[in-house]
Amino acid sequence: MSRKEGKLYGIGVGPGDPDLITIKAVRILKSVSVIFAASSTKNDYSLARNIISKHAPEAKVETLPFPMDNDRVVLQKAWEENAKIVLKALSDRGDVAFVTLGDPMTYSTFSYLLKTVRSIESQTKVEIIPGITSYQAAASVANIPLVHGDQSLVVVSGAKGGAKLPQTLKIVDNVVILKTYKYFDQIYETLEDLDLLDQSTFFSRLGLPGEEIIRNVTTLKSATPSYLSLIIVNRKTNENQENK
Ligand SMILES: C[S@@+](CC[C@H](N)C(=O)[O-])C[C@H]1O[C@@H](n2cnc3c(N)ncnc32)[C@H](O)[C@@H]1O
Known about the structure:
Elements: E1 7-12, H1 23-31, E2 34-39, H2 47-53, E3 61-65, H3 72-93, E4 96-100, H4 109-120, E5 125-129, H5 134-141, E6 153-157, H6 165-171, E7 174-178, H7 184-193, E8 200-204, E9 212-214, E10 229-233, H8 238-242
Parallel strand pairs: 1-4, 1-5, 2-3, 2-4, 6-7
Antiparallel strand pairs: 7-10, 8-9, 8-10
The protein binds S-adenosylmethionine.
The site of S-adenosylmethionine has 24 residues, from strand 8 and strand 10.
């Protein structure tokens, strides 16, 4: 087989609702020779694959297993193995896509894959198609402005708990906390200590069956939310009040 040296597309497919995907993403998904999607190492389920099935039902989708692990050695091994699979496909089959939930450059497996691909083949052609992030969808569905006036916004990961939140909230107005599932209790306690529970909104499974929007976060004390959950802290500054 001749070498094709295709382009790697990193494609954001939005947070869940298949209609929240760009026209450009759909066009490219229909044109590539293969679409890769991340799965866990335990099974080959991929939400991103489900989302695109409406738009590219005939597409060939292959899952790449990425471990949910904090061990750098285990992770590096998986990134390298998967990067080599992608590089081989680029060489043998031409253009390929990697689909990712939300946006590919926002807390996404794609950024690690891209870094590893480029560390092996620095000249790899790449194009990234942005996606609607989970927190943009959340803000829209709940009519919560993420920022206005001269407000500031920070997006943080709750994957290691809420320890950094008090410091962050000293200097910014509004905060989006992604990955709230693992240390939800800790994040909840931090928001409680900062007296911010009534200015927080919880979202789960946006655009998917079982979607939840909870404005009274106190009902979630001791809850164990799904992986697909986030919190928006929208502080009641004078400006927020005026715009209500
Ligand atoms: C690895 S990050 C991926 C972020 C994604 N790239 C984005 O642009 O939103 C996974 C986190 O995104 C959030 N998330 C993604 N999709 C979501 C959805 N449909 N509903 C609620 N939260 C979601 C959750 O906080 C989840 O733990």
